[in-house]
Design a protein that fits this description.
2 copies of one chain form a homodimer. Chain A has 328 residues and is α+β, with helices and mostly antiparallel strands. Chain A folds into 2 domains: 140 residues, PurM-like, N-terminal domain (60s Ribosomal Protein L30, Chain: A, 2-Layer Sandwich), CATH 3.30.1330; 147 residues, PurM-like C-terminal domain (Phosphoribosyl-aminoimidazole Synthetase, Chain A, domain 2, Alpha-Beta Complex). Chain A has 8 helices and 12 strands. In chain A, the strands form 2 sheets. A 7-stranded mixed sheet of chain A has the order 7-9-6-10-8-11-12. A 4-stranded mixed sheet of chain A has the order 2-5-3-4, with helices on one face. In chain A, helix 1 packs parallel to helix 3 and helix 2 packs parallel to helix 3. Chain A is globular. The two termini of chain A are 31 Å apart. At the A-B interface, strand 1, strand 2, helix 2, strand 3 and strand 4 of A face strand 1, strand 2, strand 3, strand 4 and strand 5 of B. Chains A, B: Keywords: ATP-binding, Kinase, Magnesium, Metal-binding, Nucleotide-binding, Thiamine biosynthesis, Transferase.
């Protein structure tokens, strides 16, 4: 007899899969989960594909993130990379490596979070395949696939002098949430403790939610493409670092307006993990959801300027440099 | 100044990526590595997609597997899932999570192994995207994508009574290699030690190679599809377990001929990780590379028979049940 909430070590892979498959929602694929591979429709003869990994420790703490939060975030961060190409996400493949003592309820909650992330952020996208294995370190690798509906992909290297630089989504909000978690929800030894949401103001709750359960504007990726975006990328490592990458790829300088970046300029420039869409448009009439934050200039000797001055401080999240041994 | 062989913690993600990108070979994609996502051609409007994970500990030991072996195996096991659909692999996306003290030379060797795996097993397939992150547990999640070139996918549920059951590739060879590694290349405490190839017979070397650097018959997946295979799957968990899955999905019984499975029947039936292709054909004239090993029967009350007798022993690799704490 199995316990009411058995560990994954007490179950076969088939038993765990059957519990997951009931929770990820209907397949939209030609061939969905259950065979050696999924078969997905790509009507215009192209598929967009990306992979990203969340690792227990550097990327999340279980005291702060519930299983459903993790599933939601794992979906969101990968959907954002598809959207940043101007594409519409159609499928996720999820590789979940977990410790033997992981409870079935965790796997079920994680699957529900994946489903909720797809439903809220990218309707029509579903989990169409995956892999379960054991590991001492809980690791979530998600591959997202999408389609371009006949459009050209929007690359990061297409920004042209004179373009308006715009953003959809937050900059610095998720980092503010992480700061709140580190400052307020650790015990005396530094170990993460559960979040007491009642102890947070509404603004603080929003920031913590942006960190634990981000809602990047997935639907605005295709909108930007249709509106003629010349360049676009997902802001995962902080606005400064990612704008610099875009400028370098495009052979231009990006000049951000400090006044457009809110009261905490440093956090807006260096805070990562918001998964906002950074895009350049040739015209000032931006599509709804995007707001102007700067202008593209001919190469001014530095890839990134703020109010005309070179901004070369390191900023944003570098997984190697920012690795923190503290688990939880 | 960085050391001659720095750790990944001493380098930026961009520095590591630049070393990898020089080693994975030319991109065959519309948009290859370097943007938010890759864009791949899918000329017939469908893409085949699968993901599989290798975890340090349960799936490999670093004393036995070199970096290039690991890259090769990570490619091979995922290419096999694409081939098992009757598809031709076109791209890999590789998520590599590694400890901070991992040497750059390891990452470079791993990339070279990925490239060699694609070149030897699936020419035209390349690494088109990926993700690097830190983890206490070295973890490799590979997504493989492929195309069907206008054909229907070959599913595991299509076997029909009267079909010939056939296999391309080995059954039990990789398990024999694992047995040799466990018996001969561990020290007195059970810790894995490097393989001394000179101490092995040619047959033993082949078995160890089948475990560490498998060569599944990727090109025979499309060949089987063209030849009219009614069902096909990748034998990753042992012939008995996977044949049972095929029979159950098809609503039939599969009757294997013991005489066709070599001198060690038990190893052939239960040894996993060979990634052979198990396929059913309506005719006895099999395509080159496949050999007959049995017949499909109407449901005989058990999914798997051997010489007409039900075979219901558990066999093959179950990652949960077979987890072994011993690292190396």
């Amino acid at each position: 007899m199995t316990a009411p909430d058995p560990t994954v070590a007490e179950l076969s892979e088939g038993e765990i899969l059957s519990r997951i498959l009931g929770r990820i929602g209907p397949s939209g694929a030609l061939i969905g989960p259950g065979d050696d591979a999924a078969v997905l429709s790509t009507p215009d003869g192209r598929v967009v594909a990306t992979v990203d990994t969340l690792v227990h420790g550097p990327d999340f703490r279980l005291a702060w993130s519930g299983a459903a939060d993790l599933g939601f975030k794992a979906a969101a961060v990968n959907l954002a990379d598809i959207a940043a190409m101007g594409a519409r996400p159609t499928a996720l493949l999820v590789a979940l490596a977990m410790p033997e003592d992981t409870r079935l309820s965790f796997v079920e909650g994680f699957a529900q979070g994946l489903r909720a992330g797809c439903a809220e952020l990218a309707p029509g996208c579903a989990v169409e395949g995956g892999d379960l294995t054991v590991s001492e370190t809980l690791t979530i690798a998600v591959t997202a696939l999408g389609v371009l509906d006949g459009r050209a992909p929007v690359l990061r290297g297409g920004a042209r002098p004179g373009d308006v630089v715009a953003i959809a989504g937050d900059a610095g909000h998720a980092a503010e949430g992480l700061r709140i978690l580190f400052e307020r929800f650790r015990d005396a030894t530094g170990t993460p403790i559960p979040v007491d949401r009642d102890a947070l103001s509404e603004r603080e709750r929003d920031a913590v939610d942006a960190q634990l359960r981000p809602h990047p504007p997935i639907g605005l990726g295709p909108v930007a493409a249709i509106a003629g975006a010349t360049a676009m990328m997902d802001v995962s490592d902080g606005l400064a670092m990612d704008a610099r990458r875009m400028a370098t790829a495009s052979g231009v300088s990006i000049d951000l307006h400090a006044g457009a970046l809110g009261p905490d300029l440093d956090r807006a420039l260096t805070g990562g993990e918001d998964h906002a869409l950074l895009a350049c448009f040739p015209r000032a009439d931006l599509p709804a959801g995007f707001r102007p934050i700067g202008a593209v200039r001919a190469d001014a000797g530095a890839p990134l300027l703020v109010d005309g001055e070179p901004f070369d401080r390191r900023g944003g999240w570098d997984p190697y440099a920012d690795w923190d041994e503290q688990r939880g």
